Structure formats: C-alpha cells, structure tokens
Amino acid sequence: QVQLVESGGGLVQAGGSLRLSCAPSGRTFTAYIMGWYRQAPGKEREMVARLSWSGGTTMYAESVKGRFAISKDNAKNTVDLQMNSLQPDDTAIYYCNARHREFNYWGQGTQVTVSS
C-alpha cells in the first residue's frame, strides 16, 4: 500500500520559515517525480515544486522561486520543502505527490498558515 505522509505544517508569521517533509512508502520511488502542491480556499490546486527522485532535477512555480527549495534526503528517504520568506498568500494546504506514468499518489495534506 502506497502512502505519502506529510509533516511540518503550522502557523508562522510573515517573513518566517517552515520545512515540510514527505515520507513515501509502499514501493520504490526512484522512477517517480516527487512534488509539492498546494490548494488555498476557493482556488485550484497548483504545483509548487517538484523533483525527479533519480536525477534530482527541480522545477518551481514562479511565485516561490528564490524562496522555496525542494530536496530529497536519501538517509531519511524523504522529500522536503524548505519555505523561507513566507507570505500570507502562501497560506494553503500543502500536498505531497508522487507521479510516474499512470500512477499518481497524494498525501493527506498539511496546513500552512502565514499570518500578516
């Protein structure tokens, strides 16, 4: 059974930082694209950042470039999202995603709230 377990969300003031972590399990993810998405109230889910587990190639949404960094921790087998200079517009539920061909998995989401 595939599981993506997120952690690290919370409440932070504008300008602060948070680090999210996604722990995938249930299969080998070396061929997968791992990503972080977010969904704010009344808005569609959007891609925030993603990387290829095997090669480490990264991609970011324009709105988070220079502030967020996605990385993998091979020792912990996690995909992390370091979020700096957080703004109220970053408030959303953040979801971990693993995608490969017809396989597409989601975590349960973790709330990030940025107060002004």
In brief, what are we looking at here?
By secondary structure, this protein is mainly beta.
Task: Furnish the topology, listing elements before pairings.
Blueprint: E1 3-7, E2 10-13, E3 18-25, E4 33-39, E5 46-52, E6 58-60, E7 68-73, E8 78-83, E9 92-100, E10 103-106, E11 110-115
Parallel strand pairs: 2-11
Antiparallel strand pairs: 1-3, 3-8, 4-5, 4-9, 5-6, 7-8, 9-10, 9-11
Protein model, in words:
The protein is globular and about 40 Å long. It starts with a strand and ends with a strand. It has strands at residues 3-7, 10-13, 18-25, 33-39, 46-52, 58-60, 68-73, 78-83, 92-100, 103-106, 110-115. The strands form 2 sheets. Strands 2, 4, 5, 6, 9, 10 and 11 form a 7-stranded mixed β-sheet that branches. It has 116 residues and is mostly beta strands. Helices cover 0% and strands 56% of the residues. A hairpin with a 4-residue loop joins strand 7 (68-73) and strand 8 (78-83). The protein has no helices and 11 strands.
